[in-house]
Amino acid sequence: MKSVRTFSLASAGIFLIYALSMGVIPGIMLSATPPTPGLIDFTAQAKHGRDLYVGNGCTYCHTQQVRPLAQDKVWGRASVAGDYAYSSPELLGTERTGPDLTNVGARQSDVWEQIHLYNPRALVSQSIMPSYRWMYEEKDKAAPGDVVVPVPAAFAPAGKVVIASPDVLAITAYLHALKQAPLKAEAP
C-alpha cells in the first residue's frame, strides 16, 4: 500500500511540474509581452465587435497571423508576439478558408466591410462566406442617424435602404482596428 501512495504522489508531482513548465509559466511569460511599439488598444466598440466576431464563428475561417512565408506577404509583415498584447485570447486561427485578417484595417474600408458582411458576393463573386444580412435593417427610408450601407443595386432589396445595426458597426470597428504597427526595421 505504501508503494501505491508513493507512486501516486510521485506521479502527481511529475504532472504538476510538467503542467507548470509547459502551460502556466509560458502563459505568464507571454501575458507579460509588451505591445509592439505603435500598437493601439481596441476601443470599447471594437472590443464588442471582437466578441461578435468570435460569437458568429468568424475564427473558423479567418486567421489573424501572418507567417514569415513569401505567400503571406500580401497580408502584411510577419506577426510578432507584441501584435497580440491587447488580444486575449489570441485569435490566431488554424485554417484559411477566407483571407487572413491581420492587417485588414489597412486594406479595406469600413464601408467595404459593411457591404461584405451584408452580402459577400456583392464584392467578391466567388466568396463562400455566409451573409450576415440578419444583422441589418431594411427600411423604406433612412432615419436621421442611420448608417446607410451603399449595397450595389443588383444585391440591394428593391425599394429599400440597408441600415447597419450597432452590431455591424461594432464588427466593422473591430476589423478596422486590425492594423499592424510597423516594426523599427521597416521604418523608412
Task: Kindly describe this structure.
The protein has helices at 2-31, 44-55, 104-107, 110-118, 166-177, and strands spanning 136-139, 148-149, 161-164. The protein is built from five helices and three strands, in the order ααααβββα. The chain has a single domain, classed as Cytochrome Bc1 Complex, Chain D, domain 2, CATH 1.10.760. It is mainly α and 188 residues long. Helices cover 36% and strands 5% of the residues. The termini are far apart. α2 crosses α5 (166-177) and α4 (110-118) crosses α5 (166-177).
First-last Cα distance = 71 Å
CATH architecture: Orthogonal Bundle
Instruction: Provide the helix percentage.
Output: 25-40%
Give the tally of β-strands. 3
| Assembly context of the chains | single chain
Give the percentage of residues in beta strands: 5-15%
What is the CATH C level class, in words?
Answer: Mainly Alpha
The number of distinct structural domains comes to 1
Provide the succession of SSEs. Answer: HHHHEEEH
The main pleated sheet reads as:
3 strands, antiparallel
Classification by helices and strands? mainly alpha
Task: Look at the structure and give the mean pLDDT.
Answer: 90
What is the fold named in CATH at topology level?
Cytochrome Bc1 Complex, Chain D, domain 2
CATH superfamily: Cytochrome c-like domain
Provide the spatial order of strands within the biggest beta sheet: 1-3-2
Radius of gyration: 22 Å
Uncertain runs with pLDDT below 50, 5 residues or more? none
Number of H/I helices:
5
- What would the principal axes of the Cα set say about the shape? elongated
